[in-house]
Amino acid sequence: MFPPGEEPPKDGPPGEAGLEKKTKEPANKRITQQTLPACKPVLEPVWVVFIFLAIGVVLVPIGAVCLYYGLKPVELSVRYDQVCVPGGNNRARESYIIQNAADDANLTCTMTLEVSDDMPAPVYVYYELNGVYQNHRRYVKSRSDMQLAGETSGLATNLCDPQEYLNGNNSLLINPCGLIAWSFFNDTYEVLRVPNGSGPAANLSISDTGIAFSSDVKYRFANYTPENFNPTLDSNRGGANLTAASGGATPQENERFMNWMRVAALPRFRKLWGIIHTDLKAGDKLNITIYNRYNTYSFDGQKSFVLGTTTWLGGKNPFLGIAYLVTGGLSFVLAVVYMVLRLYKPRKFGDPAALSFNRPAAPS
Amino acid sequence: MGKLRDKLRKAGKGHSDEQEKRVININTGHHDRHYAGNETSTTKYSVWTFLPKALFEQYRRVANIYFTIVAALSLTPYSPVRAWTTWTPLIIVLGVAMLKEGIEDYKRYKLDKEINNRQVQVLDPEQSEYVEKSWKDVKVGDIVVVTKDQQFPADLLFLTSETEEGTCYIETMNLDGETNLKIKKAPDETKDLSQLDLIKFREATIECEGPNARLYQFTGNMLLDGKTLPISPAAILLRGCNLRNTAKAVGAVIYAGHETKIFKNAAPAPSKRSHLERIVDKIIFFMFGLLFAFCLVTSIYFSQWTKNKSLQNWYLDPTDTEKEYSPDNPGFVWFASFITAFILYGYLIPISLYVSMELVKIAQSMGFINKDRDMYHAETDTPALARTSNLNEELGMVNTILSDKTGTLTRNVMEFFKCSIAGVAYGAGITEIEKANALRKGTVLDDRERPEAVKWRERFFNFYDERLMGDAWFTAKDPETVEMFFRLLAVCHTVIPDGPTNPEEIKYEAESPDEAALVVAAKCFGFFFFKRTNTTVTVRENTARGVNDVEYEVLNVLEFNSTRKRMSVIIKEKSSDKLLLFTKGADTVIYERLDPGYAPNAAMKESTSRHMEDFGAAGLRTLCLSYAELDKDWYNNTWQPEWVAAKTSLQDRDVKVSEVSEKIEKNLRLLGCTAIEDKLQDGVPECIRTLAMAGIRIWVLTGDKMETAINIAFACSLLTEAMHQFTISVYGVKAVEDAEEAGDKELAERLAHEAVGKSIATIKAAMEDKDERHQFAIVIDGKALSYALSKDLNQDFLAVGLRCKAVVCCRVSPLQKAQVTTLVRNHGDTTLAIGDGANDVGMIQSAHIGVGISGQEGMQAVMSADFAIAQFRFLTTLLLVHGRYSYKRISRMVLFFFYKNMLFGTTIFVFNGFNAFSGQFIYNDFYMTLFNVVFTALTPVVIGIFDRDVDKQMGLKYPGLYMQGQRNEYFNFKAIALWLLSSMYQCAIIMVFVLVGCNSTEVDRESGNPYTMWQTGVLMYTVVVITVHMQVCQVLDQWTWVHHLSIWLSQIVWFLYLIVYGYFPLFFSSDLYHLFTNIVAPSPQFWWYCLLVPCACQLPDFFFRMTKKQISPEDHHVVQEIQKKLKRAGKDVVSEAGQSPVYQQPPSVLAAIFGEQTTKNTGFVPPYDPRSKFYGLVSSGARATGKIETGARNPVLTHLDQELTDNPYRGKKKSALPALSPKGASGSKAGPSASGSSLPPVSEGPANGASPTGAGAMGVAGVPSSAASLLAGPTKVGTLPPVNGAGKPPGRLPPMGPPPSGLSGGDTMPSNNSDAPAPTSIPMAPASGSASLAPSSSLRNRLPPLQQANNPALQALTAPAPGAIASPSTDSRLAPPENANAQEQEILATYANAIKPTKH
């Protein structure tokens, strides 16, 4: 058990028990004598190569699988902010939507998408925004989780400022308060499916339930009627009220609102808007009616309508698979480079002559 | 800060020094309230002051100030984080540090309490009897009784003791570290007071100076019965001293508590910062720079963005904003954003670094250094002690060790070993030095102990000679002289006997162990000294006339000091009424004073001095003994009055006393000499060899004579024959001596200065073109050193000194020790000073690391040291194990800290770039805060405590590993840069993988939801945590359960935190609420990224490390492999490494270069190098032999060879030549050129070329230390016989190695020594250069004088100038530094105590 010289201290003769105690001799403990049993991995070149290969062997197949499933989903995307609104530039488009803010008909536009591959249900409907800084510090902190969760008394909503009180009136506490809620995305979509591109068009129902995280529905958003919340549409901007039409009249009902409230990490983001529980076939034509209300023109933002399917690994995204393949491949390459270097400059394992203080004539 | 405090402290001290004199009424029961009570406290804090003071201490660290600023800023609205998330870690960090302070202080408090509650007997004036009181209740003016072995509770005026003379003995160890007893004497007027008298003793008043720190001074008077009596310092008993050998002592308290001298002297423990910590500061500054850069980028970008872009982003409601987001006020936006960024990027600065470092260092010192069994000395029951934990890592970077000799390299246990009486050498022992040298030569001396010698052996006495032991000496040669010799040993000393008066049990209390050894020797020879009174000494003498108790009246004691170098007693034998003067002292001073008219002197001088030479060469400490019969009338009428006058004079007393002493110490009759062995400590040579292999230069600073120092240096492997040895000395420089003789001190000094300068220049030139393989050594004496340390030479001296493997400074003063240390230290070398005595304190304090030898003499050195070990040899463990480990551990830990914080901080910065630098972070502020204090806190600490690259035995087996620390390979710019670089690219990989792969347009689950910010944040944080820990896994060398625990636990805790905190109420957990369990964990991508990203981060690092290890492995890599191989071969590393002496393995550098032959240790010299100047001296014939030349001959070897042939008791010849007298033997071997009789007293011979080898060595040795010679004046030199060249008997020349075939100039003679078949001798050329190139010394001996003179080194120094003796000069450039300025004088005075003679 103990290496030589490491036995625990022997007890002195019985008579000296008293003396034994007085001595300042340090106890023989492995921890203080720095002889804790240890695993000392010293990698021989063969092991190094093995490790590189092993990493490669593990990563590459994973990469292949991930790539397969990353490419499998089908994704259709159409940018509509430019084409939906008349005007040569964003300034003109902005003034157009402001002028027609009250008239949905004038803000409606229709686009056509052709389904390139079969899209089995569920087909997810997203909107993609680009150039919206949902991760701006002022924006991120401007919310009240407690208020959203239904708390009404003892709230500290000061973080919601500047959207804490309606029009700065201290008696009109906005609920849900804050910039995030205030700027709730309010474009809406309707989709008509034309099977095989020529058949009779049928309205595809887009479900707005089951699109938010279950925990959000359960815990974070309460079932209450908003107060002082976007009472009138500000024509300068978007910002929907919570109504049945926009997905639900209360925060807990409105899953689109929940998704909006989960801010995105980057200024280009997608949010789940609805689910189509119908299989789409390749060659189907989709006529999309867009109610283009949300003002992204002032800051030159972009809006897209996106349809996508998923696999167990998520949506269409080859990055993970490629990253695995590249890393695994690199590991193989490094194994080879290492072997070449080793051949080029071989060294005996554990050779005392390799010690710098044993090497002759250290010129310095 | 510290400086300010010191100033304040000093100011406070100064104030109290100036305090008005105090008047003390003794024993009245009334106490002056102005005088401090005796309650003492050494605590730093009280309950009330703890918080403010301890906090203040914490803010001496810049980082803490920074974090407090950050915390304060986090209270402002511009903070991106919640305020408590910055306050919590700050409070934890400060709290831990303060808790540590508090615990330490509490320990001090408990100790104080114990001391304050010690009991002492105090005379109660009311009840007129003694009552027990606690120390703390003792007041100024109280009369206290201290019993034997008790400590004095306060500074006392000694009133009376139970002895007739009113004396007592005290031990001052706690005060000044001296172990010998000192006598204190009560004033005559009070010494006879009985207890009863004392009770009435109320009239007395003491008037004295205020409390001060001067230990050895006291001015005060006692007013008694209307008389004013002066009180001498001899009547003052100081707190901290112990009463010894005296049953009781009664004293009146004059200073109590904090006003006692010991408290006035209390110096704070040295506060030194390690090299590494200073680099840490620099990195922190770099990080600050980076932080500011980040902040600038952030704030400028953001203010511009806000100004130009924010108005368009209506969703930010830019028109209704606070000032900090207002587009109209970019200046303020910039400012606010800067503050925000400043808080945000605070993660670049590792907040817990300092506290972790502190923890780690405490663990290292308390857990490992103090507990190391390898540094536990069982004999003295002393474990190692780290007095500070600040310097652990510094121990791993030591370049230069400066060591004291006596008591540090040696045991300071003196044994009477040999002697020479009436020209006959006695004693058969073989010293370790001789053994070591013989071993080096390949011969083995027969040092079996003879059975008959055993019974004589005792402490201090290790001597056997059948001609002297028992009654044998009655019939020895010249028994009268022998008898006188023994009598002198028994009488001429200041030893105090103690204990039962029988030879077996008696104990001697001596000022120095040497004295004790001499008295014990006398006892063993049958002159048993057992009683001393103030005026008499009684000796039980066993002579041919039988055993008699003889009482000698001691009339005078002429005390030893380092100037006089001798001590004398004048005695009157009661029976015979004869007056005798006994003198013992250094050979030089005694020889000067021998009676030229006394015939036996002439006969004995030569042989005695040769014996002394032999003894010295064997590393023994010699003392010359002599006596004189005094003319009674002259003594009584002339000398005694003068003596009394001198003794009582008030001015220049010391000078006058020594002048008067001079008058009586003359016309001496030589008796012989003694030789005392101060044995090397166990394992010193091995230790030094190991240290040398670890690339550590060793400077030995000793008060010894040059030749003794050199011999010891050879014996302890400090000097080896493979070294080119240079000697710098001003003794024997003819021009200087001429100048001295002529009395022109300034000229002599200037010449000496020049000579030293030239020596150094010569050495420099000789070193210039040599590569590292050439090992050099310098031997320099104190006087030359004083010039070498002068402003214009010290840099050169340093340059050559640092090129040397070993430097031996002889005859140095404590001040010089400190000066040399400072010189080396200021060069940037990491210095470690090790010593045992009060004289080493200066050196210990000026070095980077001070090490005290504990468990022996006093505590002075230990108290001023940073580490205390019991034996010199423990240095190897301290440096090669603990130092090396600590250095690596702490560097690794610190680098890891910066790495992880840089990595983490940069992710925050990069992410900020994606949100217009608005100051938003992707993480949650709470776990962001916990990054440093929880999730990555344990692992670095574990690295700092438990990491070990190789097992400790391997560290000892391969001392060269230590050089990694010296080169600072782990913490240099490159290492730091590489770590930071890897943090940068790892950060890049993480950012790309996470922000591209998991960007917010990507869907990561079947249910179709894209990534959201907090989810991405958790993912990013998780990969950071895993990456950081994987990095640890990569750099770790050994995995113990602690490593596993910390690494896996830290990561598990992170996940646990995510889960548990997610279930906290929404108010606390906010964005983390149900995040992990419901959103993050169900996503398969999360887990795939957790596997992929750390792998991708570590892969390049792994490749780089492995390739580097393959292509150019570092030393520890190779040793790790060796260790692995050993283990694989089934050999236990521990036993393998542990059993083989460390110095045999691995093959030395030299062996690696030159093959196996060098390991034979037979006079090896590096190979011929044609560029070398001094190799130019070697005749071609010598080279043609193709054999390895015998280089620098160890002088000891030389003498040993002779000794072997001379001494009948030596080795194999012991039976063959029992009766042959050494003199005869030597005479018979005397060469043709100089006969034994023409030999001048060797010890007085000027050192020819001051060569330490051959005869020159003894010449130098005899010359007193610089201080002595400066004071001694020209008279002494005047008495020197003029000697040209080497006056040495050729027979004593070093026997050469293989005789150079082409060399025929010298006479050869047969030798019995197989190693030296043909010793060659040539008279040394007359050359008075003061530098000699040692390896050539034997070569030089083979050369014709002319060629010798061509030696540029010697030529350069042959300064033909008349002159006179050196003396202190006003020329500051030339003067030895100790005269340079007043401040140094002050220091000198501080060490005056240490200069006292105890060790000589």
TrEMBL record, chain A:
Biased composition range(s): Basic and acidic residues: 18-27
Transmembrane segments: 46-71, 319-341
Cellular component terms (Gene Ontology): endoplasmic reticulum; Golgi apparatus; plasma membrane
Domain of life per record: Eukaryota
Bilayer topology: Multi-pass membrane protein
UniProt similarity note: Belongs to the CDC50/LEM3 family.
UniProt-recorded name of the protein: ALA-interacting subunit
From TrEMBL, chain B:
UniProt GO BP: phospholipid translocation
Domain P-type ATPase N-terminal: 25-87
Compartments reported by the entry: Membrane
Residue ranges that the Swiss-Prot or TrEMBL entry lists as coiled coil: none
Residues the record lists as binding ATP: 404-406, 515, 560, 584, 621, 702-704, 811, 817, 839-840
InterPro entries noted in UniProt: ATPase_P-typ_cyto_dom_N, ATPase_P-typ_P_site, ATPase_P-typ_TM_dom_sf, ATPase_P-typ_transduc_dom_A_sf, HAD-like_sf, HAD_sf, P-type_ATPase_IV, P-type_ATPase_N
Domain P-type ATPase C-terminal: start-end pairs: 862-1113
Composition bias type Low complexity, residue spans: 1219-1241, 1325-1346
Parts of the chain that traverse the membrane: 62-78, 84-103, 283-302, 332-355, 894-914, 926-946, 976-996, 1016-1033, 1045-1066
Main location: membrane
One annotated Gene Ontology cellular component of this protein: endoplasmic reticulum
GO molecular-function terms, A-Z: ATP binding; ATP hydrolysis activity; flippase activity; magnesium ion binding
Entry cofactors: Mg(2+)
EC number: 7.6.2.1
Reaction catalysis annotation: ATP + H2O + phospholipidSide 1 = ADP + phosphate + phospholipidSide 2
Residue ranges of the region described as Disordered: 1-37, 1189-1254, 1273-1384
First-level EC class: translocase
Protein name, UniProt field: Phospholipid-transporting ATPase
Species in which this protein is naturally found: Edaphochlamys debaryana
